[in-house]
Amino acid sequence: MTQDHSYVEDFAPGANVLPPRAWLDDDSAKLPLSGDWSFRLSPSVADAPDDLKVPDTSGWDTIAVPGHWQLSGYGAPAYTNVVYPFPLEPPYVPTDNPTGDYVRTVAIPADWAGARVVLRFEGVDSRFAVHVNGELAGWSSGSRLPSEFDVTDLVAPGKEARIVVRVHQWSAGSYVEDQDMWWLSGIFREVNLIALRPGVATDVFVKAAYDHLDGAGTLLVESDVPGTVSVPELGLELATGEHTRIESVEPWSAEVPRLYDGVLRTEGGEVRLRIGFRTVAIVDGILTVNGNRVLFNGVNRHEFHPDRGRALTEQDMLDDVLLMKRAGINAVRTSHYPPHPHFLSLCDSYGLYVIDECDLETHGFGYEPQPPKLPNPVMDPRFRDDLVARMARTVHRDKNHPSIIIWSLGNECGMGENLRAMYDLAKELDPSRPVHYERDTEAEFVDIYSRMYTSPEGCAEIGADSSLYRNLPFILCEYGHAMGNGPGGLLDYREVFDKYPRCQGGFIWEWIDHGIRTTIDGREVYAYGGDFGETIHDGNFVCDGLLFPDRTPSPGMLEYVKVIEPLRIVADGNGGVSITNRYEVLDTSHLTFTIVTEVEGELVGSGTLPVPAIAPGETVSVEFPPGVIKAGDAGRPDTWVTVAAELTSPTPWAEAGHRIAWGQIRLDEPAEPAAVVGGSPADGEAGVAGITVAGVKNARLDVWRAPIDNDAIPGVAKAWREQGLHRVQHRIVSQGERDGAWEVVTRTAPPQLQWGLVSTWRWTAVDDAVVLELNVVPEGLFPEVLPRLGVTFELPKVERVEWFGTGPNEAYADSREAAAVGKYSATVAELQTPYVRPQENGHRIDTRWATFDGLRVEAIGTPFGLTVRDWTTDDLETAKHTADLVPGDTTYVTLDIAQSGVGTAACGPALPDRDKLTTAPATLAVRFTTA
């Protein structure tokens, strides 16, 4: 054996690797190699000892496989979104190329005599060479694709075999794996030794179709070894290669994932089959499954766990699928590589549509070849064999999953002939599925037109004009960027998808925040880019998911759940409720409808709402049953009826009673703002910074929020700072009794600039309360838009807040669909949203009243937005992690007149004018009462 590392910078995909084949559930004997391996890390290839023939591992460490060495105490993770952390000069990589050696000795079973022995790796990052008993078995790359080596001649049944795997962090393959994620290395998926007996089927292709016109199914099972296929439930017994028609089958869909168990028997063994009959077709510009238009309520899913990185367990994968199903999510784009095959099996069983993406992204090269830039690898013929092989490996491994309805060539690689070759290969191997690639911006060779982060208006233009992009189905492969506080404006997209059949939904970016759990300064945090000392990184852009790193749903997740729910429940305009079924194939017979009536947050009636079975796409109106709404309730203020649809019986993914959809209907008309009853001037004082009155300390006008990611990244917050909004000062213009009130006039303005907000504060004692009437008028060259406009004041430490308004979670002007009007209670800590990078959070829009340990604040007329914290906005803004925020002895309360929406501008369209807080005269009226 020679120590030749030239393969590290070879353009080829590998050497001595077996041809790709399907991932099979068969009865071949397997020897799992997960567990502890001996491990040694060298700082570079040159430093890696030439001792792999007979390595002495007595002084080595041990490491767990699957796993990443950076998460096991060797080196450190690094995050980049676009840029490569090494120079662009393919195929060369830095000399300082961390190289990990793994060694495992295993006994080969004696009864494996006569079998072909295959060593299979499900995923190794990024390139690796395998030695068995001192001989080189081969090398491979394609980090998130399987590699198999025939080691029959290198092992002896009944004897031990030493397996040595040398893994390199960087390789020529790294140039095509720039996938907006942590750079993490090692053997991160399972390794197995497999005994393939003579006559065993090793590659199988199940082709099961469904005819929605007559309900018939067709089945063809191709195998590299002839055999017999049995499907007992259908009474089928047929030979491989034999095409048969079944007069009646139940089709597979994401809503009804019907699978038939089958078995393929050959002379050498059995392969268990999970057969889903379904047909994917594009008809008149519409993507259909079994004849039905599909609307993708989807997510992009990286594989991630805060402790294990991409080394997921089967429980992690199941957790993801269950969370998706319970949320009403029906589709997954596997960004930007094929996931673990077990995840796809779960999608088959539980019902999720899948866009299966090849292990390819070259974002750091840019999209166009502009001198002096090097050509993107998709344009470089030297990379063609590798890229085409990656597509073949993807299709072959995953072709038997009915959940996969679309192949994707990769992500953000620009355009090039290598992509066309990948498309041609995918269509040759599997013409039954359409092929997707977003950067084919003119739809030259794809079957689906795709974009990222297009505005709702832009989507509508495409939906309305069938002459655009060959009238292909249109999807947003990424939208609704879920970074930090957001996404906002999701309902706008849903309305476009509902209006234009060609606009078939999209996939939120993304599923989960990639915060790595670690300790900084003795405190546990979720780390993001830069926290491990990276000199090149993209900060917290890696935390842009609907789930927090521990898989707790964020407010953005709850908003998405509400927007995509499969029923639309609204007032019918005739005193009843209108229910629209948005399911693809299900009627509503599996649901129970409940109804609850509340007046000012108090329960006054409840029951079951009789609803007939509603077919997909149909709408019915239902009258409210007698007794649920009592005489006189409908005219009382803030009277709300909530109708909810719940599972009648348990499903594999949720218990009975799980809420599927809900809607609130207001029975009274919002009252006109009440006139303030006259009283006497309240006792108070005005200091340099604010006003103290009625237990409220240091009340002042507030126009700043700790920038959310959607403010900071697109430069909105920078513009706000240029306008001085982050450092306004307060001046008392006048104070004293006037017209029966204690009146204070203040001017709030930034240094140097020639604008300000003149506020008139009128404090009046009325009965046992103090009423504040605030009038704000802008003057001078004031900014067009404000982050917020409200009053912030201080209270002694508050433990619990009760409020009547929207809840239970935070809600903003453009992210309030999931907010229900009701009465809620929470601790101050529970009111905070723990975004990985601290930022504005916890706002409850449209609050009618709130209590704080004996102080009650009540809106007079127009509700206010409520935020309660145990730290200042400055504390929030300067904190790097949630653990940096330490409660003090003061609670800070903000009553917002309004606040700008949250949007998705960190990676998406700018906040629409509708959701901006335009600077204009404004008023607030509230009543303070102490117990």
Q: Explain this structure to me?
A:
This protein is mostly beta strands and 931 residues long. It has five domains: 6-196, Galactose-binding domain-like (Jelly Rolls, Sandwich); 204-279, Immunoglobulin-like; 281-562, TIM Barrel, CATH 3.20.20.80; 566-666, Immunoglobulin-like (Sandwich), CATH 2.60.40; 680-930, Beta-galactosidase, Chain A, domain 5. The chain is 11% helix and 37% strand. It has ten helices and 64 strands. A hairpin with a 2-residue loop joins β50 (729-738) and β51. The longest helix has 15 residues, at 384-398. The model has no long low-confidence stretch (mean pLDDT 96).
Poorly predicted ranges (pLDDT <50, ≥5 residues)?
A: none
Number of helices: 10
Overall structural domain count = 5
Rounded average pLDDT: 96
Query: Helicity range of the residues?
Result: 10-25%
Q: In brief, what are we looking at here?
A:
This protein is mostly beta strands and 931 residues long.
